[in-house]
Every structure is written in structure tokens, then in C-alpha cells.
Design brief:
The protein is an alpha/beta fold. It has 2 domains: 4-261, Alpha-Beta Complex (Spore Coat Polysaccharide Biosynthesis Protein SpsA, Chain A); 279-362, Hexapeptide repeat proteins (UDP N-Acetylglucosamine Acyltransferase, domain 1). The chain has 9 helices and 28 strands. Strand 4, helix 2 and strand 5 (82-86) form a beta-alpha-beta unit. The longest helix has 13 residues, at 195-207. It starts with a strand and ends in a 6-residue tail after the last strand. One of its GO terms (molecular function) is glucose-1-phosphate adenylyltransferase activity. Belongs to the bacterial/plant glucose-1-phosphate adenylyltransferase family. Keywords: Glycogen biosynthesis, Nucleotidyltransferase, Transferase.
Length: 368
């Protein structure tokens, strides 16, 4: 059986979630009530029998390392293979590599030593539930050099403008990679490649002054490589801005969207934190809301997402909002279209109202 090793490349992902990425990289941003964005990528890999995963991190990775630990939540704390967090801690005076090719070059031992035949590279901004074994099967069936994953979106949003788009012929071969804002073939920042070909392309890119492995090693070589497009047809969300984070988070309140992402057959795992069940006091009114463990609710909550340990005081009203871990909303406060980062405190009687297209964001540990 052909084996796959995984690389989660965070090097080129910009931290564009404003206040939510002041103290953490985008991959570590909480999502969906109890998860982090990177949980979906790691879970997809482990559910697809990828048992060796490296994370290329360059900046603000303390929170990420604290969350991933040794990979126990994903069964990656093992003697062979497992989880490797690889920050930019190298000192090779002969190294001429630049950009994310520095990570590929300085961690080439991970690629060389893995027993896998193929390397799967993914970012963290595309939230989905995908089986990479299906990608491998199609990759082998068409005898591709590289297989890239894309989604055909029904409606284009501002976040899709930043994503690469694919031009595909009738045989699902990629003939172009561009930023055409009108294209609906959104590249999901995931590709599969053989270990040997990746090694050769890394050396070629560095020798020719390349900085970005995908752009310089794959996109620029489309005429020479057989790059196949695999269409992912499941639930998909691209999160690269506060607005896209808010919109795709609140979509989880729709049963179809939620069930498409969280499957019993392919569960999404996260760091376990043992907390008691949430407590709904007699004065509470909660409708269409995701509520994690450890919450104490006395007020009114509608169409919102509450992470672990949130306290909602009596008479408080929360609508269309995302409240992260251990936030405290005191009595008679009003929140609407608001995102509270972790450990925030909203004082009694305070009113915060944002707009659906521009939510009001409160940074981590702030009291108002």
C-alpha cells in the first residue's frame, strides 16, 4: 500500500484576521465552538491514514505549539512518524534558499527519511472534511506528476479574490493557475506529489532563485508536468479575513453546513479539555446556538456560537455573535454581530453592536 506523509505549510499564510491574529497565527484561531482552524487539516490527514505530519511555522506559533503538543489528540504521539512542529530554527551559512523554500530545504530530512511514497502539502485556511486517499487513487489512476485539490464554488465572496484559481481542460488537467476574480475553480491550497519529484523540484527551485515551492516548482512548470485537478465536492469554507471567519462560522448554525463538515465517519479531533456540561439556569433563553462545555447561561442567546467556559449573566442578550473561551458577559449587557476573543469581559449594561458584513471584534483579554 502506498503511504502518504503530510506537510502543513503555514509559511506563506498571512495573518489577516486582524485582532484575532494579534497574538497567534491564523492556523491557531479558534473555530466552530471548540476547535482551532488547523484541527481540520490535521484531522483530515489522520483520517486518511497519514501518520507522519510536519508543520512549517514561521511566526506567532507559541499558541499553535501549545495546542498541538505532541499530537496526542490525533493519535500522532508515536515512536515512528508522528507530529513534527518545525519552526524556522536553522543556521546554515551556505543556505541560499528564500521564502517557503527555506522550510523545504532546511527540513529536507523529513522528506528524505519518511517511509512514505507521496507527500501531501496543505495549508490551514481551507476548512473542509476530505479523504486524501481518494486524491491518491485518482492521482495514480491518471498517472499525474502532481494532483491539486480545488472546489467549484456556487457563489464568489471577497475571500475568493485572494485565492488562486485553476484553468482546467476536459481531461481535468491544469492548464493555468491565476487570480481571475470571476473564476469559480478555487484552488484549496492542497496538492499531492511523489517524494522523489518533490526532492528534485526543491533543488531546481533553489538553484534558480525561487522563493515559493508551489508557484516556482509547480505553477511555472505546467507545460512540463502533468498537473491533475481533483474536485472536492463537500462542505468547504475559505477563511482568510475577519468577515470570512464570521460568515463561515455562523453558517455552522445551518444543519446542512454543520453535518457536512462534522461527520461520524471522519470526525474532527482537537485538544481535549475536560469540563463539566453547560448549565442553563431558569432565566436562560437559548435558540439556534452552538454551546460548548462549561458554559453558565442566565441570559438570552440567539444564533450564536459559545466556546468553552463562557458565562452569560442574567438579562444579557447575545445575538449573531461568536464568544470564545472563558469570556464573561455581565448582566444586562447587549452583544449583536460581535466576536469576542478569549478571556474578554463585558461589563454590566454595556452594548456592543456590529454589522453582519463588518462584525465588532474585541481582542483577547480585553475588558469593556
Amino acid at each position: 500500500m502506498d503511504r502518504i506523509a503530510g506537510i502543513i505549510n503555514l509559511d506563506h499564510e498571512q495573518d489577516l484576521l486582524d485582532e484575532l491574529t494579534y497574538f497567534r497565527c491564523g492556523a491557531a484561531v479558534p473555530f466552530g465552538g471548540r476547535y482551532r482552524m488547523i484541527d481540520f487539516t490535521v484531522s483530515n490527514m489522520t483520517n486518511s491514514r497519514v501518520d507522519s505530519v510536519a508543520v512549517f511555522a514561521r511566526r506567532k506559533y507559541r499558541s499553535l505549539m501549545d495546542h498541538l503538543e505532541q499530537g496526542k489528540a490525533w493519535d500522532l504521539d508515536r515512536k515512528r512518524g508522528g507530529l513534527f512542529i518545525l519552526p524556522p530554527d536553522w543556521n546554515d551559512p551556505t543556505d541560499i534558499s528564500k521564502g517557503d523554500l527555506q522550510h523545504f530545504h532546511n527540513n529536507i530530512d523529513f522528506i528524505n527519511r519518511t517511509l512514505a511514497d507521496y507527500i501531501l502539502v496543505s495549508g490551514s485556511q481551507n476548512i473542509c472534511n476530505i479523504n486524501f486517499q481518494d486524491v491518491l487513487s485518482e492521482h495514480k489512476k491518471v498517472n499525474a506528476d502532481v494532483t491539486v485539490v480545488y472546489a467549484r464554488v456556487d457563489e464568489l465572496y471577497p475571500e475568493h479574490q485572494q485565492a488562486h484559481k485553476l484553468e482546467i481542460d476536459q481531461n481535468s488537467r491544469v492548464t493555468g493557475i491565476h487570480n481571475d476574480h470571476s473564476s469559480i475553480n478555487v484552488y484549496m491550497d492542497m496538492y499531492l506529489i511523489s517524494k522523489d519529484l518533490m526532492h528534485d523540484l526543491i533543488e531546481q527551485c533553489i538553484a534558480h532563485g525561487g522563493e515559493h515551492f508551489f508557484l516556482d516548482g509547480i505553477k511555472s512548470r505546467l507545460p512540463d508536468l502533468h498537473v491533475h485537478a481533483y474536485e472536492y465536492e463537500g462542505t468547504h469554507a475559505l477563511v482568510n479575513s475577519v468577515e470570512s471567519y464570521y460568515r463561515n462560522s455562523t453558517k455552522l448554525l445551518e444543519a446542512e453546513q454543520h453535518d457536512g463538515l462534522f461527520s461520524d465517519d471522519a470526525p474532527i479531533f482537537t485538544k481535549v479539555k475536560n469540563e463539566p456540561p453547560s448549565n442553563y439556569l431558569p432565566s436562560s433563553q437559548v435558540t439556534n446556538t452552538l454551546v460548548a462545555n462549561g458554559c453558565v447561561i442566565e441570559g438570552q442567546v440567539e444564533d450564536s456560537i459559545l466556546f468553552r467556559g463562557v458565562k452569560v449573566g442574567e438579562g444579557a442578550v447575545i445575538k449573531n455573535s461568536i464568544i470564545m473561551q472563558r469570556c464573561e458577559i455581565e448582566p444586562n449587557a447587549v452583544l449583536e454581530n460581535v466576536i469576542l476573543d478569549k478571556d474578554c469581559k463585558i461589563s454590566e449594561g454595556r452594548t456592543l453592536i456590529g454589522a453582519p458584513e463588518k462584525p465588532f471584534v474585541v481582542p483577547k483579554r480585553k475588558s469593556m
